[in-house]
Amino acid sequence: MFEHNFVFVVGHKNPDTDSVCSAIAYAELKNTLHPSDEYVPMRAGHLNEETQFVLKKFGVMEPPRLNDVRTQVRDIEIRQTPGVNRNISLKKAWTLMNEIGVVTLPITNRNKLEGLITITDIAMSYMDVYDSRILARAKTQYKNILETLDADMVVGDKNAYFEEGKVLVAAANPDLMEDYIEPGDLVILGNRYESQLCAIEMEAKAIIVCEGAKISKTIQQLAKDHQCTVIRAPHDTFTVARLINQSMPISYFMRRDSLITFRTDSYVDEARAIMAKKRHRDFPILDRRGNYIGMISRRNLLGSGRKRVILVDHNEQKQAVDGIEDAEILEIIDHHRLGTIETISPVFFRNQPLGCTATIVYQMYQENQVEIKPEIAGLLCSAILSDTLMYRSPTCTQVDKEAAEQLANIAGIDVRQYATEMFRAGSNLKNKSAKEIFHQDYKKFSMNDTTFGVGQISSMDEAELKEIKERLVPYMNSSYEAEGVNMLFFMLTNMVMATTELLCKGSGAAELVQTAFSFAEVSDSYILEGVVSRKKQLIPELMIAIQQED
Questions:
Q1: Residue 1 — very low, low, confident or very high, per pLDDT cuts 50/70/90?
Q2: Final residue of a domain: which of 426, 455, 476?
């Protein structure tokens, strides 16, 4: 499937409600404004329970998962070389190659790849074969012989096979022919009645009469009695002898073993590396079910297109879907600090100091005078309520609040009642493992040479947060090294009290928080009064503290 007209709209890894809902809503807007392309909302990770609740509430399907945006084989133009039957002749294969301009033909059976034959294989069949019995060993069908020689079947079954004996030219007189014709042979001869008669009586399996000579009824009847196939060819004896090996089926020469194939979801950089080690020019492409769909060559890879992507709710490379450096980024819609994403060419970049990306998307609907559907309004409103903790977060602006209230009116929901339901759904963590809880809303950050990860859980239930802490502390201790960061933090945010207990792990982590928030003593956890926002209240302070240490 050639996906060049697709544009993927995707949020960050460990997606939250804002990144998912903004991707869906922005893809909807782009499809309305630019119908020539297809904008597809995607997700870069597992959906948390809050987001699942939101999508179910408004009857919106969960976006497909996008794990990697490196260019895949499906993103390049696959040559639709038709598969051929294993029984066609070498001559037919050669003719087909010349007609469609290829040097390799795939042999298929019910869309399954059986083998390949190249123009080199065909040439080798002419140059290296000295075996007069190869036509029989290849189990050549008579209809292939008829097609190759432009001949007619006078006696016999064209669907039968020549499976034994040798091929010979009867140039001598009948007396000498008896010395070298054996039962089962295929004999090429002229219009001499005596020669034809001799070949049949010597139990030849088939005779080919050249130059379109007339074949008497007596010979025909005798051939039937001896079960000898009779073929009449328009060419002279030399031409028939030269052409007949071209009637052999390609199955005898095709390559069956160790075939190098690629799937449509194979990555182009990996395919290129494999191709560089092989001398083949063309490689078959299979779909997920193993069905043959076409061929590619090294030349196809030269024009391979990048996946086209719009990023929402992030502009940090570490938060982006894998392979983002190989993608063509068209736009970035975000409300976070400027990050590390680099682009090859200029892009549309809209970044506003608001509490939620969904607020920006709402503004873009308004600016383009596009009507917002109730379900899209519900998604955008949910995203704002989630990111601003129902207006409690210091990141929340009056613009966010007004947007949420207007969207709630379109969606037909009561903000406070709905937000309570949504947050309760999101904090239902009883059946989740410590690992799942930790990564539910987890992001990595970098400053200078320091990399740190920060996870967050928000709840309206103090007892639930206490229980989560008891499970997370052992997990953080055991998995710290596996996270590949210098320091690890986790925010246990009480939405009712507007406070966060911050858990710390890693060399210098506790000291960093002590410096950032002016605590008197070092501890493995701190109570941060009034801190509920990772983006606006925690990360900036940690960044400043890291810079001061340097």
A1: very low
A2: 426
